[in-house]
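name: query_chain
kind: protein
chains: 1
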Amino acid sequence: MDDDKYFIVKKKAVPEVLLKVVEAKRLLDSERAMTVQEATDAVEISRSSFYKYRDDIFPFYENSRGKTITIMLQMDDRPGLLSRVLNQVARNEANILTIHQSIPVNGIALVTLSMELHPQKDGSASLINEIETMDGIHFVKIVSRE
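structure:
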């Protein structure tokens, strides 16, 4: 097995212990907890669980601040829908680098967007969710991030 592979997983699919490790790390980073013991006690996990997973889990935005992300969307071929998606990207202060839209087939289009995320914002996950929940969007996949 290749230990250097990465996966993007929705929060609901992540085991609770890993989410608690992320929260403990946040407590330590924000200095709400001064020691690992205090942080692990606060989130109710063992120190051994914290040490076992601390270098293997992090919120998506921590690895993508000020970075380039490429997403693929499947969407209805409707006037104005792509414009709404691009407006959502602009509201999140991301910079569009490339747009590629396939020729629609049976009223469905595939769109690939590459964008540079705002370096001071951590809203990439919320941006993806906002696009994904728009009427007419079938799905959004993260293709790459740098």
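note: The CA atoms of residues 55 and 115 lie 27 Å apart.
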